[in-house]
TrEMBL record:
Protein name: Alpha-ribazole phosphatase
MF-aspect GO terms: phosphatase activity
Species of the source: Sphingomonas palmae
Listed InterPro entries: His_Pase_superF_clade-1, His_PPase_superfam, PGM_Phosphatase
Pfam families, sorted: His_Phos_1
Any Gene Ontology CC annotation: cytoplasm
Length: 192
């Protein structure tokens, strides 16, 4: 069975760090963009070919892929929509409501926001559309976790054991088929 490399990179640090950034369309910092460029360079230096690049349509991811030479924009790689919480600091929210969301994001989504299952379905469609060639996707923490759930079989709680700082890269070997399955081949944290 044929396989291909898939690299999932979290966008660089946004200009609004520490907030619940879902649909909020803010820029990445110059240092955040530079960190993504460095990470992509490390892939190349380690012999990893990247034939295709994709990005979320949100500015903080899109700017990073543009700095890498551009790529196809796919809104299915957007972060989870935090609805009424979007753009706010977690400490400013109703802590009981936030705890219910973290414990069961399907039963208790953010007000007017997206459920975990909706994010997983959206990312599943995006994964199915990826060509079977080495691909780099610049996206967000939520979609990376959803992809690990779908491709590797990790449950919702298990995907949170991965620390995904800005500019981190998760590399996978993905096997063709329906559904696609994968093995994690590398996790490179952000560069300082």
């Amino acid at each position: 069975m044929r396989s291909f490399a898939l690299h999932l990179m979290r966008h660089g640090e946004p200009v609004l760090p520490g907030r619940m950034l879902g649909r909020t369309d803010c820029a990445a910092t110059p240092a955040g963009i530079a960190a993504c460029v460095t990470q992509a360079g490390r892939l190349t230096e380690s012999g990893q070919e990247v034939a295709h690049r994709l990005s979320s349509d949100l500015r903080r991811a899109r700017e990073c892929v543009e700095a890498l030479g551009g790529g196809e924009i796919d809104p299915r790689w957007r972060e989870l929509d935090f609805g009424g919480w979007d753009g706010q600091f977690a400490r400013e929210l109703d802590q009981d409501a936030l705890a219910r969301f973290w414990n069961d994001p399907d039963a208790f989504p953010p007000p007017s926001g997206e459920t975990w299952s909706a994010l997983v379905a959206r990312v599943g469609e995006a994964l199915a559309a990826i060509p079977t060639e080495p691909t780099l996707v610049v996206t967000h923490g939520g979609p990376i976790r959803a992809a690990l759930h779908l491709l590797c079989g990790f449950d919702r709680e298990q995907v949170w054991v991965f620390d995904l700082p800005y500019a981190a890269v998760v590399s996978l070997r993905v096997w063709e088929g329906s559904p696609r399955r994968a093995q994690v081949t590398g996790l490179v944290p952000c560069v300082a």
